[in-house]
Amino acid sequence: MKGLDLAERYFETYGMPLLRNKFSDYVDRIAAGLVGDGSECFGFDDRISQDHDWGPGFCIWLSDAEHQTIGGDLEKAVLSLPRSFLGYGPRIISEWGFGRTGVFSIPRFYQVYTGLDHLPQSLEEWLNIPENNLAACTNGRVFYDPKGEFSQWRETLLSFYPEDIRLKKIASRCMTLAQFGQYNFMRCIKRKEFFSARYAETKFCADAISMVFLLNKKYTPFFKWMHRALGDLPIMGKWFHEKIQQMVDAVDYDEKADLIEQMSGMIISELQSQNLSESNSLFLLDHGPLVQQKIKDDNLRKRNVWVA
After folding, report:
1. CA 131/CA 109 separation, integer angstroms
2. Cα 176 to the chain's mean position, in Å?
3. Which tens digits make up the pLDDT trace of 35-71?
4. Cα–Cα–Cα angle for 212, 213, 215, nearest 5°?
5. Pairwise CA distance, residues 202 & 269, whole Å
6. Running DSSP on this structure, what letter comes out for residue 49?
7. How far is the C-alpha of 135 from the C-alpha of 42, rounded, in Å?
8. How many Å from the N-terminal Cα to the C-terminal Cα in the chain?
9. Contacts made by residues 4-8, CB under 8 angstroms, sequence distance 24+
């Protein structure tokens, strides 16, 4: 059974009756689900995942005021629920896995991931949030949210970056993809700098995945799941998933260089399709500054095109 399905059934069997019986005055102001860190929240969990931070459990989210009023009592009540369910459990919490389930204030829950106790309000605030954190705090599933406060935060973040931030990141990826893949990979091979070549290959693949996520207006998840999640994206996702697997499997350096050019060419075609670049250059370095020039905010547009 997948962790998300287990968590939802566990909540329906034990969590919802608990809320209705012991917290009836607040039941219509409480949200519940499973969102955050861990493979189960992305739906990528398997038998290997079950050795830690996996099993029956869910999150409950309250407003700040209601968390102060009933948060402690609700936490104790949730901890009193059966620890095993449908033959799974108890949940084994690792040293760094504490706090993945339980009772949370909505602003504090999101602050763990964004560093903010409010939704990002400026370009600078958006730019400072790690992208994999945004992927984590918008994944999973909301089981119950009659008030809609938690879902409002979630939907705002899921609507993706402001367009200027997306353009800044795309421009930067153009530069690094060209630098590590199209330019430096084969130069490292010719110099027999094989560690540097392997690093350039890996960096190119990681930034290519990031680019495809940006072009799909989706957040790139934690490194363990970025390639797996890539295959589900509608724009170039499956194609890039296969090409990067070919890159990993290839032993011939010329074959790898050819794959780099194929992927670079596909990205350029999509940049043109989305009207982000008018250049016909085959070198991604030429496209980065053109994408950056489309940024409307003066200060952001004038920043170093390599950095985002």
Report:
1. 16
2. 20
3. 999 999 999 999 999 999 999 999 999 999 999 999 9
4. 65
5. 22
6. G
7. 9
8. 39
9. 4/34, 4/40, 4/41, 4/43, 4/140, 4/141, 6/55, 6/56, 6/85, 6/86, 6/88, 7/33, 7/34, 7/40, 7/56, 7/57, 7/58, 7/141, 7/143, 8/34, 8/58, 8/141, 8/143
Q: pLDDT category, 294, cuts 50, 70, 90?
A: very high
Quote the pLDDT of residue 95.
81
Average pLDDT over residues 167-185: 98
Distance CA 204, CA 176 (A): 7
Q: Write the pLDDT tens digit of every residue in 157-169.
A: 999 999 999 999 9
> Which CA distances in Å does 275 have to 35, 174, 214, 272?
35, 15, 14, 5
CA distance 43 to 140: 7
**Strand pairing class (102-105; 31-34):** unpaired
* Model confidence, pTM: 0.96
What letter represents residue 76's amino acid? Answer: K
Rg, the chain, Cα only: 22
Strand 102-105 relative to strand 59-62: parallel, antiparallel, unpaired?
A: parallel
What does the pLDDT average to over 100-112? 97
CB atoms near residue 78 (< 10 Å): 20
The single residue listed with the structure tokens 């929240």 is 41
Q: Which two tokens stand for residue 96?
A: 């760094």
The confidence score (pLDDT) of residue 97 equals 77
Contacts of 193 (CB under 8 A, 6+ apart): none
d(CA 9, CA 5): 6
pLDDT band for position 94 (cuts 50, 70, 90)? confident
| Contact (Cβ atoms closer than 8 angstroms) between residue 97 and residue 52 | yes
HSE-CB for 44 with a 13 A CA cutoff: 19
pLDDT score of 98: 81
The pLDDT tens digits of the residues spanning 108-158 come to: 999 999 999 999 999 999 999 999 999 999 999 999 999 999 999 999 999
Pair of tokens at residue 286 = 């030429």
